[in-house]
């Protein structure tokens, strides 16, 4: 545990001790209402106020002077508050009775089959027969749950102007579920990461200027609050504007394309701090994440060795991208040429098929006899010059 954590624990213990002392003084002042006079109560309250009052040097605000009318109004409100506290403690202890909780007369319906003068079990039965045990409930509540027949109760939902979507956790009966400490911390952290305004609130300057955190560039103590809280970067607003090459913000796409960061590296919360915002293009898209430029550059230079190696890797990937683009273009061109050539061949075949062929016969020639074949003297053969078809004719 470092010195800052020890100091924080000591401050927390001192604050709890002050709260316990203040509560003890208030209890003593109220318990002595019947015994002590009003002057003693005022004196005890004044002592408690003086003991727990903060010095004016810490508040750093001018002392207010109250008019007699204001002091009289404050005293009147204080007496009213004390009276309400006395009544509340009296009701809790059982000395006093709360008139607002008095039972009202209830309507007793006639019970079918009851005999005149017989006992009637109902809301007033315990008042008529005090010796009999009072029933557990005056009436039976209907066992109806809205969740049984109402799937979405629009009266309990918050209109987010993007559809009736409720972020509150509710149980089956529609009652809100109390948020745990871990859920509250996560919600506050998400709100802090999603809000980054250029104009921060004017905070008070630090008390110890020598030990206060200073800007990396100019040594000023007027730091950018959001840059310090989100990125743990000590830089003032003027230096952030003067050096955009170091303190500008990068999107996840820019980190991947310019510095070749991978998705697991950017998703590691312990490696990089980021600002999470709603996507400006559409509310249904994933949230936009912004990273600090010099933190991304430091990791990228360490990963690739140096800035020159990073530039070489960028050139190598650009060359590979160019080659892939050319190869894809050549493949498409080759496919297009094949398609055109096939279409041309199909067109020629279709034209030849549709065209009627006319034979161009040659002069008839006497048929030559083959081996062991008898040929007539008036047998002649003619052949088509274009297709080569032969026809045998016998002249009479």
From TrEMBL:
GO terms for cellular component: nucleotide-excision repair factor 1 complex. Residues 246-296 form the XPA C-terminal domain. It is found in: Nucleus. Pfam families: XPA_C (PF05181). The keyword Zinc applies. Keywords: Nucleus, Zinc. GO terms for molecular function: damaged DNA binding. One of its GO terms (biological process) is UV-damage excision repair. PANTHER family: DNA REPAIR PROTEIN COMPLEMENTING XP-A CELLS. This is XPA C-terminal domain-containing protein. It comes from Pichia membranifaciens.
């Amino acid at each position: 545990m470092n010195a800052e954590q020890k100091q924080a624990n000591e401050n927390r213990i001192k604050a709890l001790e002050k709260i316990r002392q203040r509560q003890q003084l208030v209890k003593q002042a109220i318990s002595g209402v019947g015994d002590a006079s009003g002057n003693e109560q005022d004196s005890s309250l004044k002592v408690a106020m003086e003991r727990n009052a903060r010095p004016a040097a810490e508040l750093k605000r001018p002392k207010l002077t109250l008019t007699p009318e204001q002091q009289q109004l404050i005293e009147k409100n204080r007496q009213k508050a004390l009276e309400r506290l006395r009544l509340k403690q009296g009701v809790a202890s059982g000395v006093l009775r709360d008139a607002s909780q008095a039972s009202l007369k209830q309507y007793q319906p006639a019970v079918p089959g009851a005999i005149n003068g017989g006992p009637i079990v109902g809301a007033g039965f315990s008042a008529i027969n005090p010796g009999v045990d009072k029933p557990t409930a005056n009436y039976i509540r209907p066992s109806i749950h809205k969740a049984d027949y109402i799937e979405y109760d629009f009266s309990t939902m918050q209109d987010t102007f993007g559809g009736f979507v409720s972020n509150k956790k509710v149980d089956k009966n529609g009652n809100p579920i109390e948020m745990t400490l871990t859920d509250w911390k996560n919600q506050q952290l998400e709100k802090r990461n999603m809000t980054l305004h250029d104009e921060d609130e004017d905070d008070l300057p630090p008390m110890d200027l020598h030990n206060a955190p200073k800007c990396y560039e100019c040594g000023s103590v007027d730091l950018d609050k959001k840059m310090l809280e989100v990125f743990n970067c000590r830089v003032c607003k003027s230096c952030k504007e003067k050096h955009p090459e170091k303190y500008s913000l990068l999107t996840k796409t820019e980190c991947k394309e310019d510095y070749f960061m991978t998705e697991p590296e950017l998703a590691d919360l312990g490696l990089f701090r980021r600002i999470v915002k709603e996507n400006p293009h559409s509310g249904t898209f994933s949230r936009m994440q912004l990273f600090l430029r010099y933190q991304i550059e430091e990791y990228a230079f360490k990963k690739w060795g140096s800035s020159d190696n990073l530039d070489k890797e960028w050139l190598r990937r650009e060359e590979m991208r160019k080659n892939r683009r050319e190869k894809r273009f050549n493949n498409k061109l080759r496919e297009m040429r094949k398609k055109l050539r096939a279409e041309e061949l199909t067109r020629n075949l279709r034209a030849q098929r549709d065209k009627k062929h006319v034979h161009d016969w040659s002069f008839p020639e006497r048929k030559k006899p083959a081996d062991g074949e008898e040929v007539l003297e008036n047998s002649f053969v003619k052949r088509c010059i274009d297709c080569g078809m032969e026809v045998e004719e016998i002249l009479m």
